[in-house]
Amino acid sequence: MQLIRLLAVFLVLSGVFAPGMEAGAETVDDATLRPLIQALAAENFDETTKAVSGLAKTGDARVSAILNALTAGDLYIVKADKAVFIGKRDGSDYAATDPLTGAKLAPVPRNAAEKIKVNNRLRRDIAAAIGGLTLMSDNPAERRSAAETILKTRDPESIALLDQAIAAEKDSGIKAVMQQAKAAAVLNSTAPDDAKIAAIAEVTAGNSRDALGLLTPLQGSDGPVGDAAHSAIDSINGKLALWNGIQNIVYGLSLGSVLLLAAIGLAITFGVMGVINMAHGEMVMIGAYTTFVVQQIIRASAPGLFDYSLLIALPAAFIVSGAVGVVIERGIIRFLYGRPLETLLATWGISLVLQQAIRSWFGASNVQVGNPSWMAGSFDLGLLTLTWSRLWIIVFALSVFAVLQLVLKKTMLGLRMRAVTQNRRMASAMGIRTPWVDALTFGLGSGIAGIAGVALSQIDNVSPNLGQGYIIDSFVVVVFGGVGNLWGTLVGAMSLGIANKFLEPFAGAVLGKILVLVLIILFIQKRPRGLFALKGRAIEA
Amino acid sequence: MSSLTARFIGTFAAAAMGAALAFSPAVAADDTIKVGILHSLSGTMAISETTLKDTMLFLIDEQNKKGGVLGKKLEAVVVDPASDWPLFAEKARQLIEQDKVAAVFGCWTSSSRKSVLPVFEELNSMLFYPVQYEGEESSRNVFYTGAAPNQQAIPAVDYLAKEEGVERWVLAGTDYVYPQTTNKILKAYLNAKGVKDEDIMINYTPFGHSDWQTIVSDIKKFGSAGKKTAVVSTINGDANVPFYKELANQGIKAEDIPVVAFSVGEEELAGLDTKPLVGHLAAWNYFQSVDADANAEFIKEWHAYTKNDKRVTNDPMEATYIGFNMWVKAVEAAGTTDSNAVIDSIVGVSVPNLSGGSATMMPNHHITKPVLIGEVQDDGQFDIVYQTPGLVVGDEWSDYLPGSKDLISDWRKPMSCGNFNVVSGKCGGVTN
């Protein structure tokens, strides 16, 4: 492998120096390449690996496209004559193209073709082979990924090539990656000590977590290199400890915002109205299933809108869950006001009915809710990896909270809700139709639970049991924050989230959760009304 | 008249109506053989177990088309233990005592199996258990058609060490008996192979854990020590989806840190976008993508029976298929459904499996299986990248745990012992 990679490097290099020739674009005639491509259809991975390096060795510009197709699993063989083709699924056939010329071939029926299998090791080898070929590519994204591949393989043979690439590189971001890659390769080589010490300084300046992986093996070696690695590791560890603290807070806020989303609807139905609503989790679940249905419709009729599916699902989920909430309130709960035990049992029964209804309708398995492109992936903030989905959920939870506060404080509906919950008879005497306000309040709380379901569908699995996982946590948050106080729910959710994340690394996820519950029990003993207790007589009514 | 006819048809069309009929003392008790199905149809485990109930109804339906067993039609009795472990024992007792079923097919979690075990031993009935489990058990009345740890976990670890060159291991699991015992065995195995304790990280999470940020970033940290790292996952059920989503979102690719899972199959991947997961692995004894005629036939009939050509098949379904066919064959060999006779006749019974080979019931009530390693593909299926050259015999008492390595199980007469100690030469477990 090493030798072959070396050869590939030289071939590419010779391409660079050859006057009048495009960088890296060696051309080999088809007759030479054809049998090499055919060799990819080998019986086992070892032989396919050999074929891959054989292809890379030619240095032909078309090779990287063929190898990319192999990694993507688009390379097939016709079972009958073992001919290799690039296939794209098209109904019950594969639309076939010739891997070398790109010419269209006759479609191949699916049962007549066999995919060329790829495993992780082969994928790594292909990436390394392509890395050598595309380091001088015209496409910046290809150059970057080539440099990143060398950063992983740390192949000492690529140092010379990297020097060439660094000298030619204009983009400072890619240049930095290339320099990191070169330093990594130097550390892995038999270079003299001073070159290695310079390389240690170089990697320490870059991404610390990668650097730790590079430096740890050197730590044991004697002499100045070992010492330099040792002190570099110490300084990185110091930095990591600080970032660990920041990470706990950020992850805690993220967990807190999930708790907030789950609990905020309950803060209205339980906190403001005083209904012990065990079916709250199922409202969340219905919201998540609404997202699924919306995405199904979009996939079927307007795939271009998929990135907006969540925005469309939000009002839909609010309406569906809210309507279910109003029906439950009008149909069952209104007969049970003032009888908490019966309410508890009745709503628990409703939760079982709803779960089984969804299970019978959609099946017991998880359904697949897709992530729109803007929710997928992650970005690095210092040494912290933050995923976009989590970040959007923090933003989303806080905006839901703000909107809810506005509705309660600034709208007529909010005013009536507050009036009814504070003094039902007086409100009624003032001409407010209290039964309708009850229904709308319950509908609002359920609707909010529904839009929480839209957000949770992005990070959790959408199954009939989705709600059960959140109901206990929601009650804990509302009780801990102070019943009847939305601010209490916000602070309660965030502090529980952060406490959980600080305990998790020490105690583990299981014990951490137990510890948090024990702390809450102790806290409730001391302050039975939670963090922000409502004062006055309203609470007694 | 018409309602009477309907009732008779109902009695014979055993399948879906079994549950309803269970309550009316069977009119035709002599004409049918009753088979109990003990899988959760509601609660947390419904997601996995409902499919096995459907599989059993499908198999019974097929068998009846072929004329039933011993000239009698089979009749399914379906009960719902609702993912509630004590309820499993109650329902098992109801099946055996009231409904007088000849055998029971059921259970998924080890907790439910442990709950029903005393019932089956007390009433001397038969349970076919179709799920991979942690081993360390052998009962005269239970037939384990899923994988023991040596038929799944150990070959998977060997594959990673050899093919991927893994030197550092994260053993992540849900906090209950199966992951804990499996991880104990794996840790002992890795230590025996010279992996140091500092290169093994063990992590447990509660059932249904959904916030994986910290753990995934810990795995990333653990994996950046300059040695090739892999995750061996015994995470069970619902927690898998958020785990894989977090892995994908934090950008951990299979080429960097592969995850090999023992509880993730086609059914679990159904709720996931598998594009970011391509290359992560699973170890099973069957995949839907197995290229064998028996498998193609089975999938075709399953799709026809469920009238849904999207329904996937998975490993516990194959284990159910094997267990059911073994029972049928043993009953036919014994000429009766009497438990004692069938238990004696089933050892050594060999039936075809779905991967083109055959499975044999061993004297320890475990079966022989091939071990397959598959990589996740972007269509939610697995590509088989490795297969053991021969069949592996299920090892009920692990060779890597100090308490159990001296034990063997052999239910043939005259030994008839589930925990024979080869050191002390006595039946009855560990000697200290």
Automatic annotation (TrEMBL), chain A:
Record-linked InterPro entries: ABC_transp_permease (IPR001851), ABC_UrtB_bac (IPR017779), BCAA_transport_permease (IPR052157)
Keywords carried by this UniProt record: Amino-acid transport, Cell membrane, Membrane, Signal, Transmembrane, Transmembrane helix, Transport
Signal peptide positions (record): 1-18
Main localization, broad class: membrane
GO CC annotations on file: plasma membrane
GO molecular function terms listed in the Swiss-Prot or TrEMBL record: transmembrane transporter activity
RNA-binding recorded as keyword: no
Membrane topology: Multi-pass membrane protein
Segments traversing the membrane: 249-276, 283-302, 308-328, 340-358, 391-408, 475-499, 505-524
GO biological process, one term: amino acid transport
Subcellular location(s) per record: Cell membrane
Superkingdom as given in the UniProt entry: Bacteria
The family this protein is said to belong to: Belongs to the binding-protein-dependent transport system permease family. LivHM subfamily.
UniProt name for this protein: Urea ABC transporter permease subunit UrtB
Species this protein is from: Phyllobacterium pellucidum
Phylogenetic classification of the source organism: Bacteria, Pseudomonadati, Pseudomonadota, Alphaproteobacteria, Hyphomicrobiales
Automatic annotation (TrEMBL), chain B:
Matching SUPFAM superfamilies: Periplasmic binding protein-like I
Extent of the signal sequence: 1-28
Coiled-coil features, chain-numbered ranges: none
Record flagged with keyword Signal: yes
Keywords associated with the record: Signal
Signal is among the record's keywords: yes
Lineage top rank: taxon: Bacteria
InterPro entries cross-referenced by the UniProt entry: ABC_urea-bd_UrtA, Peripla_BP_I
PANTHER family documented for this protein: ALIPHATIC AMIDASE EXPRESSION-REGULATING PROTEIN (PTHR47628:SF1), PTHR47628
Protein name, per record: Urea ABC transporter substrate-binding protein
Organism of derivation: Phyllobacterium pellucidum
Gene this chain is encoded by: urtA
